[in-house]
């Protein structure tokens, strides 16, 4: 590893999330890649006594509770997302619905299919694997325990995701948590520093007050320098944020006069939580988008966890909605080749089972690395597709450890109801960056993980296993996950409508303002569906020409 720090998220049986940042060449990070990830996201805290005490210090006892859903429905971003959803339901019903073939049933593909179905069209959604969700997929082991691709957090600042839950009637499946962020102190193992967002204050005052009250992570001069740097982002909005794409986090911080200590101890954790890479690689645009949303929206940084595994609790309701409107979802349908017609447009999607699937329009909702492998040679030199070369997925390793840790977590509530078990804890952690570890054995990864955990929780965990006992573990490796948000990659992100008539892209790597996140995936699906609906007359006429041509053969 090239960095000298790490952050990590832990998930107990009730999805308990902690993040820290220590000086060590091994890296463990939050697996959410969902905006800020370097904090305890979902727990109230009280003091736990009876352990070895230091003067003025006692360990934190975690008490996880659910909170009412925040008032999101009247915010400007929520209403904007709601309006976009309504345009599909209210669009004129097509004389002849388009059959749209979509490859990839992650959130982007599911979103594309859902909103096309809402507009009266027939999506045919193809998923290569036997599980839904893509980057939010999960599996059940022989003991009935679930293990996931990563730890996923649903923010108040995700207006399209929040609308999606409401449209499906599953708002009750999100378990909202206290509006606090608690950082592990890198130089003080076992101690934490918290940021509390006051409910009575509007944005951005609640965020500013939370920062001002905390004097452990940032000194006053550092706060002032960082605040001055953030002002243009708050005033200039999205245009200023996108203009910072050319700078890394480290470069931007130095430009503002913020000491490297702040980058090393605070923003290294945030960088890995957002994109699984270090501050010297991550584009500052990524950090600013997160901070801007959190500072501009009172409930933007409020966090919720899904009450169970994502394929069943989120993806299946979308599938049921699609099928209720006449669409299809087919598992075990892996795309092998994009077959072209004589004019260079798509003739069909050829699957690995030998079947060809034809439609009036085609969508790739696969990750960008898979898309690049599937691109026909005839398209590769087209500028639209050639720019994709700079977009490369980040390797990610997700680790699940079941143990007998109960002392700190004994009062856990049902933060994630389906995963709750009163007899054992489950920690979920993600290595970041993982490039040097992706080929290592599971044993090596678990051993390195326990060494890092022992430094953050010295009273509960020992690297030699003398304290917490590992009952079992799962390691999930994703060689290419979300695209690496390095400086100057923003111009390479494609619009959803490609230059090939009838071919579209969906995915968080495509152009939308939420970058590599669940919100970005859902919004990209809506934009893709919108482009197809707007092109209805063109696509319908194309289908008629093809039909007439087939009749003349």
Automatic annotation (TrEMBL):
GO biological process, one term: carotenoid biosynthetic process
Subcellular location: Plastid, Chloroplast; Plastid, Chromoplast; Membrane
Catalytic reaction list: 2 a plastoquinone + 15-cis-phytoene = 9,9',15-tri-cis-zeta-carotene + 2 a plastoquinol
Membrane topology note: Peripheral membrane protein
Gene3D superfamilies, A to Z: FAD/NAD(P)-binding domain (3.50.50.60)
EC number, UniProt record: 1.3.5.5
Assigned keywords, A-Z: Carotenoid biosynthesis, Chloroplast, Chromoplast, Membrane, Oxidoreductase, Plastid
UniProt domain Amine oxidase: residue ranges: 107-532
Recorded superkingdom: Eukaryota
Pathway entry: Carotenoid biosynthesis; lycopene biosynthesis
Cofactor: FAD
NCBIfam families hit by this protein: phytoene_desat
Subunit and interaction comment: Homotetramer.
Family: Belongs to the carotenoid/retinoid oxidoreductase family.
Protein's UniProt name: Phytoene dehydrogenase
Biological source species: Chenopodium quinoa (Quinoa)
